Amino acid sequence: MSKFSLDLECIFIRVKDFDVKQLTLVLLCLSAVSVPLSAQVCDPSVAPTGLTSTYTPGTGALLEWDAVPGSIGVQIKATSPSGSNVTRRIIGFERDQFLVPDVLLTPGTYTWQVQAACRTIPSFNVTPISTSNNFTVGVGSSCPATVTDLDGNVYTTVEIGSQCWTAENLKVERDRNGDNIPSGLSNSAWQATTDGASSVYNGVAANKATYGLLYNWFTTIDPRGLCPTGWHVPTDLEWTRLTDFLGGESVAGGAMKTTGTLSAGTGLWQSPNALATNSSGYSGLPGGFRFNEGT
Prior knowledge:
This protein is mainly beta. It folds into two domains: 40-137, Immunoglobulin-like (Sandwich); 146-256, no CATH class. The protein has helices at residues 187-192, 207-211, 217-220, 236-245, 249-256, and strands spanning 3-6, 11-15, 24-28, 33-36, 49-56, 60-66, 73-79, 85-91, 97-101, 108-117, 133-137, 146-148, 154-160, 163-166, 198-199, 214-215. Helix 4 crosses helix 5 (249-256).
């Protein structure tokens, strides 16, 4: 493919490091940058997508995203564990990643976003800012690795924000005091009952192992308790804290869903499942539902 060289003079760029509050001046020089003649024109209306982040102790946090075609740089905006806002501008053709050195990071959870620049001079013709992504640094989880219910089922856990969640659907068949939870109800019995009851997805017993059980509302409010000791059914406020931490309701679902599709043989969700990343580790599965009329 034919190429041409793009020579740029040295550019002063204001850089704000992740652990430094004051701004400093850094001299960056770009020279003989090879750009394919067929390179796409940068579209300033397209925000970067596909944000992921991986923290490796001793190395740092690798931030990755889908590059905006034709972009010549990016600006990363982050909120540190202390709540301070930090910004970093980076020159690079169709830049799609940045490593934050571990030495610049402090323990806690960072939230970050990125936007691309289509020009090298102010106002840089920047794109809209992306949705947010999170990574946690150097803090041992306050959650137990696993939790066991009354029936001996063992569930892995995940810490999201300041909350501990089970990363698997509940499948216990007894209340916390040992009483059996009614199951196997017909549609009419399910509709009529005012007691707690459970069901398996689609009426197939084998689904319990993968998807857990479905419980009616009366089970979740039963004073005998449903969850393992020390755990409880989440409140609406706790769900809101979860979705807010993951960037809001419009993006939290993808961060909580397992990836892959049934048709491709890579997962359990129906196609396309395109926005699923499971970046939170919540590992949500399509466990189904049962309406109050029993179906």
